[in-house]
Amino acid sequence: MITVKTFVFNYFGENSYLLYDETGEAVIIDCGCFRKQEEEELTAFIDENKLTLKHNLCTHLHLDHIFGNAFLYETYQLKPEASRLDAENLPSPEDQAKLFGLPQQVKAVPVGHYLTDNEVIRFGNSELKVLALPGHSPGGMVFYNEAQHFLIAGDAVFAGSIGRSDLWGGDMDVLVMAIRKNILTLPDETVIYPGHGEPTTVGTEKKSNPYL
Fold first, then answer.
1. Within a 10 A sphere around the Cβ of 118, how many other Cβ atoms?
2. Domain of 188?
3. Secondary structure letter of residue 190 according to DSSP
4. d(Cα 95, Cα 113) in Å, to the nearest integer?
5. What is the number of domains present in the chain?
6. For residues 201 and 153, is the Cβ–Cβ distance under 8 A?
7. Which of 27, 56, 113, 157 is most buried, judging by how many CB atoms fall within 10 Å of its CB?
């Protein structure tokens, strides 16, 4: 049984998700911890619950979702796992920081494994299916757990909205098409955990999301 722990990190109010099951093995998705106290909050939770991090997964490589990658690598020796399309087509974290007007330097960590559509990520007794969700970024991914009917959606879809498409390599038509194909076809009860804001469900978004 997977437990989903949400942390809200950095300037952008980004949702970082720590998933773990009864074995104590865990994955972190979109680690956005930026400030020292955010790093301490994450490590304290991992230590208190005696968790072993197995994967550092990225729905996409926009800055607010990867602030914590250097910290994870230095602390847990985990390189990020992400799409090759994002790794090869997005500006470096440092360049993104400049474009967002942020003064801090952000360390880049090379992707250790390129995720592919329909790949299965395993940890403990649990698994997540990787689904391609381009449009917000060139190589956006979401992570689906069929057994418990939930989805970690990054910035693809939110409660009542969808991700922006005006950043590097974004495409609104591609995004909407991908959401309709890979998210709205899931069971209505599937919980969507977005990259910002509160969770929603597939059924709710099918009925009321004005962009879909």
1. 8
2. 3-208
3. P
4. 22
5. 1
6. no
7. 157
